[in-house]
Amino acid sequence: SGKLRPLATDWGRLVLQKARISELKDHLDGEVTLQGWVRHHRKSGKIQFIVLRDGSGFCQCVLVKSEVDEQIWERARQLTTESSLRLIGTVQQNPRNQNYELLVKDLEIVHISEAFPITPKEHGIEFLMDRRHLWFRSKRQWAILRIRHTLVKAIRDFFDERGFTLIDSPILTPTAAEGTSTLFGVDYFDEQAYLSQSGQLYLEPAVAAFGKVYCFGPTFRAEKSKTRRHLTEFWMVEPEIAFAHLEDVMQLGESFLKHLVQRVLENNQFELKELERDTTKLEAALQPFVRMTYNEAVEKLKKLGSDIQWGEDFGGDDETMLTNEFDQPIIVHRFPKEFKAFYMEPDPEDDRLVLGMDILAPEGYGEVVGGGERASSIDFLNEQIAKHELDPEPYQWYLDVRRYGSFPHSGFGLGLERAVAWICKLPHVRETIPYPRMLYRLKP
Ligand code: 4AD
């Protein structure tokens, strides 16, 4: 019974019957064609084990010498790591670990890979980053980027289901949104342009047309600091809501983050396990968030040993210290105006403060969300533009929001990569995006 299949398989015809590894449970005891790459290949006497990956998952494929044609057996013996191939076999469930496996009947090599540079041994980070285009074939990087994908979909669903209209903001802009020190300049014919740091200035006029809007796209900051939290190109989702106040966006931010965590817990158990993520820690984000004012946070930090002074922004270490105190995320609100953006609404109860808020992720991750209430008075904004030494002329269109039916409005921005780093519990944001851009890193 052993020699199951004639050698001349019509592979072209079989393409239509091919399955993906993630669907194998639907084909138990059935025959399928898989196409993919060799992750590992091990020979053990009269059995060969091929761990195949096809982008949807990983699957052990077993070749038993006595059950396949000798030519197939010999063909399989040539396989190297990352060789591409097609396999036909029967789907079985491994009684020990319940995983779905393929008992191979036929095998076609598509390409024998050259020696793959990334091996199971430890590699330095620069070596891996130079080979990012190959590195993300590894199981861990694959798991991270799959969770990123879940988050992107969850972000869109969250706002789409709540009546927000997507307003794409431009990437080439004439002005700064978040301070002039982190602008990337671009020659724009005879003018100076900059890569967008945030879509917010473009959402504020749009919210007067659509009520609730969001943008979601790449943003750019010429960050000269090399930290585990900073990229020069990162994705930000920014909702903006008409007639909303600080309290409204604090609540929205909290339910938004809960929704994101919930989605990943529902969809990515396999990936979280691969990343050895302690999901009980992640579930803490489903509890009510901690809230504190900037003033309270500074007091707390001083007690914890930070040398922060009132009026200073938190450093990365301060955020880590603060978030290590609680299992849930922390919303810090009402900051000194000195270090916040020019567009923030002053606090009616303390004119040293503005109605901003940041959400800090637990386990040392720090700021993932920044936002607040926007100033609605044109006089106040003109003063602020002067104070921040910005040229008022290019902001006139933005000030129109305050000329024609001004209204309170609020919003925030979530950095996707910081959210991925926290949810996956990664040591650095560089692993959260397919092709990271950082200080000294523009390749591949
Ligand atoms: O706090 P930020 O600078 O806020 C804004 O840009 C507002 N205009 C958003 C708004 O209210 N519509 O940035 C928002 C978030 C941060 O909390 C962080 O998650 C992320 O963007 N972020 C970065 N992520 C990675 N690398 C960087 N260099 C980042 N800078 C900000």
From TrEMBL:
Pfam families reported in the protein's UniProt record: tRNA-synt_2, tRNA_anti-codon
GO terms classed as biological process: asparaginyl-tRNA aminoacylation
Aminoacyl-transfer RNA synthetases class-II family profile domain: residues covered: 145-434
Cellular location(s): Cytoplasm
GO terms for cellular component: cytoplasm
Keyword set, alphabetical order: Aminoacyl-tRNA synthetase, ATP-binding, Cytoplasm, Ligase, Nucleotide-binding, Protein biosynthesis
Subunit structure: Homodimer.
Family: Belongs to the class-II aminoacyl-tRNA synthetase family.
Protein name: Asparagine--tRNA ligase
Organism: Sulfidibacter corallicola
Gene that specifies this protein: asnS
